[in-house]
Amino acid sequence: MKDSPYKNKVRLTDFDFFSDGDRAALCTWDGDVWLLSGLKEFKTLTWKRFAAGLFEPLGLKIVDDVIHLNARDGIWQVIDLNGDDEADHFKVFNYDVVITDNFHEFSFGLETDSEGNFYFAKASPVKPGGRNFDKILKHNGTFLKLTPDGKELTVVATGLRAPGGIGVGPNGELTSGENEGTWQPCCKLNYFTKDERPVFLGTEQARHEVTKDFKEPLCYFPMDVDNSGGQQAWIPDFAKVGLQAGEMLHLSYGQSSVYRVLPQELESGQMQGGVVRLPITLSSSAQRVNFHPEGSMYICGMRGWQTNAASDAGIQRVRYNEGTPLNLPEVMSVKGDKLTLVFDSELDEELATDPESFSIKRWKYMRTPQYGSGQFSIDNPDLEAEANAQKQESKGHKQQDDVEVTAAELGEDGKTIILTIPTLKPAQQMKIDYDLETLDGDVVIGTIYSTIHKN
Fold it and tell me: What is the pTM of this model?
């Protein structure tokens, strides 16, 4: 879209497919909606601007072939009345959201559940420079639910800073990314269920009326894994991407990466687990994902705030080469002194049973009123450093613990590895490096970043 006849930026923020499978609608940070057609045969693709003048739409959902947009000033329906592929009617679907003039008060995502309810999340009004906030109004830093008719808006979670993107699971699970900052020690993947609503997700200034304790995330992320979260999504049963139906993905806008999520549910209902990066190279950031009816995965992104994206915008089709294994872990769990990893390929026994094939480190963060957090030892806490972290920024502090693997066992399926770790314990962050081979001699080298709340 470098040759837009309107001489404007086309920084793509979200998209969805129409029911015909041939067309998609895409919105941009600068307020446009574009139609992309030709997706069925994928030979000649045609772009046409459908609408303009919207206020920073960062979420788009097509329901009954009607485009719904989440903009800063409300939820809109953008309708073509005469069939000429240009919007004739801009209809307010809901404008109950209270907004301010703060530059950072973004409204992220637009997803629906099985009952047709809409969901989106609003950032808190971060001050210029990223530290602390302007005046907090009732919808700042909240996860919001909107009824299918657009008439009733309710808060289902509070305490967000800058979620970046959200997800709605097949059973009504709700997720969001989060960016580090005030009361947020680092980026993370939030996860909560219908039964837990409302929950408090960490930013004290945006707690509102929720008195519950801070809801721990499924996983924390160091900055080089995710410094600005995007959307989460679950693999549908028609997808052909080398992943199983029901698996969860997490997108990193900041690192232009797509991660396979390895969740483990505890008896308490709390989720923990890790992520491993998928071998996908993108032309821009990873902000939103969707699945075409023919099975391909599409990812769009842009470059607006901090990201390593190579270009200002892009949308890409990701296809899977049938019969080519990803050679990635697909399950991770912990219990007692055992850490279990299940890979999607059979592994060479010699390397899989060698403890030296694995290198593990762990650390914790400090959740404070300061901006972000350093990395602090769990095994040998530096009490003075922790006390200082409560008073001043500690992002430069880095202290990691080495974790010894004393034994590695390969299961009968040739894919399951059980690591014995005598000192296994809860850790906000674990880094698990592995260096293995498949039975066919393919190199299997990678890293899992995980969080353990209980073992």
Answer: 0.97
